[in-house]
């Protein structure tokens, strides 16, 4: 069911209902939110379902809105250390919610900052002008490719150097070499690269990133993504030695034209900073 814009997540009416529940148990508040959203037991790549879910969010709900911090605090309280990766319907819904939030936030950028003819990259740079964002995480885990008998294969058969942009430690944007957002769910068209290397909203921040954002992936990722991920691997993080599959290797399968993937991402980050300054 599509909700009226006056009662969508981020609207004033929604905030009133959300604030009424601030003194309830975090897990009860979270269950109420999932039911308000009508979050399915399992996300799929069905575009009609995605449109229904996105319609539950107010079109002006921005990545910098205070609601996201409140939601993160609720999730951290509802799921103590090392509990989100345990079996359970709510655990799976909360984990998969990260992908939906990233899609909603990318759509906000497209709707409010992307003029005709602009790329997602240019729109994001316009949004981040004057805001504090970080590029220190080079997105090693968002650079997956398939290696079969030494032969490399990129998602969608298109080589890319993907850039990870982090805002407020929670909001994550992944851009491919063509300047397009990579998201696991995308109303503008699902791609193999987006499903495999796409963004996900972060619940854990620096302190709980592993147990809230990484550990649940193995058990709770959507089935359609797990199927696509078969055979794809991220570069290793080993910096020294003879590991040619390293993120830092200049000769291995993750390198391009004698440059390490880490070095290529550094170049992308430099160019993006310049674009933000010029926006």
UniProtKB/TrEMBL annotation:
Pfam families attached to this UniProt entry: DUF3114
Biased composition (Polar residues): 247-256
Annotated region (Disordered), positions in chain: 232-256
Name by which UniProt lists this protein: DUF3114 domain-containing protein
Species the sequence originates in: Streptococcus danieliae
